[in-house]
Amino acid sequence: MNVTALQQMTVLFVDDEETAREQMKMVLSSFCKNTICVGSADQALAALQEHHPDIVLTDIRMPGLSGLELLNAIKQKDPAVAVVMVSAHSESEYLLDAFRYKADGYLLKPFNFHDLLELLSDIATEKVATGRDTGNGPEKKAFVLRILDTLGGRRAEIMEYVINHLDEENLFHGTYDEVAEALSASKPTVVATFQIMLEKKVLTRLKYGTYRMNVEEPD
C-alpha cells in the first residue's frame, strides 16, 4: 500500500451517523491532505462546490437523498471525482446499482480500515498517474468481481460467471440452461439473477442467449 498519492487528496466522507464521521475523520486525517465529513447528501453537494474533493466516500442509506442519488449527481457534475459507496448491507442489488451509476469502489461496514486505505490509495495513485476519471470499464468490472467474491452466495456466483465470460465487446453469450449447467445451479435461481441484472440495467438482452454488459452511465 502506497499512501504517498493519498497525501495529495482531499476526501469527502458522507454519513448520517456522527460516530462514523468522527472515526473516519480521525483515521483519514493522518493520511489525506484534507478530510471533510458531512451528515447528508445535500451537505455533500455543497461541500463538493466549496472544497472540490478528489474522492468521495458515501453511505448508501441516508435520510433524504440516498448515497446512490448522490453518486449519480456527482458523476453528472464532475465525472473525474472518484466515488466509493459504503454500506452495511451486502445484498448484490446494492452493488449493481453502484456499478450502474459508475461508482469507483464499494466498501462494507463495519470498516476494515486497512482495506479502506488500500482502496483509497489505489484510487489516489491512479488519479495522480493518469489525471483522468478512474471509472472505466476494466477497473469497474474488477471492483465488481472483488466485492462479489466477498458477498458470496449463488446469485453472486452467477453474476461473477457472467462478468468472467464477457468477450472484448462486453457481450455475454449463454442461455439460462447453459449457465445453470456450468455452475450446477437451479434454473430458477439463474433466471431470477438475470432478471435482477436486467432490471438494474447492468445487462441488456440483445437476442436469445446474448446480453451486453452496460459499463456506461444509464440514460
Structure description:
Helices cover 49% and strands 17% of the residues. The chain is built from nine helices and eight strands. Helix 1 (18-28) links the parallel strand 1 (10-14) and strand 2 (34-38). The radius of gyration is 18 Å and the shape is elongated.
Which helices and strands, and how do they pair?
Elements: E1 10-14, H1 18-28, E2 34-38, H2 41-51, E3 55-59, H3 67-77, E4 82-87, H4 92-100, E5 105-108, H5 113-130, H6 137-151, H7 153-164, E6 171-173, H8 176-183, H9 187-199, E7 203-207, E8 210-213
Parallel strand pairs: 1-2, 1-3, 3-4, 4-5
Antiparallel strand pairs: 6-8, 7-8
Helix pairs in contact: 2-3, 4-6, 6-7, 7-9, 8-9
Provide tags for this entry.
about 15% strand; alpha/beta; about 220 residues; 9 helices
